[in-house]
Amino acid sequence: FGIGLFCAISICCAASRGTWSFARDKAIPFHHIFSRISGDASSDASLVPFNAHLLSTTIQLLLGLIYLGSSAAFNAFVGVGVICLGASYAMPIAILLFGKEGRKQVREAPFSLGRWGWWLNVAAFLWLSLEMVLFSMPAVIPVDRVSMNYASVVFVGFAVISAGWYFISGRYHFAGPPIPSDIDNDKFSL
What values do phi and psi take at 48, rounded to 5? Predict the structure, then answer.
């Protein structure tokens, strides 16, 4: 119980900071509400992204309620985290491998794998592709509606929602994370 409690506190803290960062960058709906910081402005230690914390906690509670209805649905939401991480790692590698200017852009990077860089990127991309397929497979055979792994369905659903939100709002408002020299420290410090 104690370990779970301490893990839950750190997970809530990290999730609220991540939610606040997305809201600050105008990457989520109602960003003007969730990017607010509450607390005493005279002390950075007391500033908290309370609205972002409430949003992330509410989402965690709703995901917890899914488990009461269907463990297969809950496992799909938990399992999709690994698939999303794999996709987030594979996208920049794919851009390096298949983009017009990909490898040329990193030729003068401070860290280089030299002639092995292209081959290691190919190996990493293939491994991540295999991983994403494996984590989409059901854990047992024969597969029925309870033992089916719905993580791929959730992944595609997230991708459709994210792409839809980008076309509705993101392409007009999202400019990427702020450059540290452009940040108004009074407004965005935590």
Answer: -135, 135
pTM score, whole prediction: 0.68
3-class SS of residue 100: coil
C-alpha dihedral (48, 49, 51, 56), degrees to nearest 10: -110
What is the tens place of the pLDDT at every residue in 27-63?
Answer: 888 888 898 888 766 666 667 888 998 998 898 888 8
Q: How many residues does the chain have?
A: 190
C-alpha–C-alpha distance, residues 190 and 183, integer Å? 12
The Cα–Cα gap between 66 and 71 comes to 7
Burial tier of 185 (Cβ tally within 10 Å: 0-12, 13-18, 19+) = exposed
**pLDDT digits over 115-165, tens only?**
888 899 899 999 999 988 888 888 778 877 777 788 888 889 988 988 998
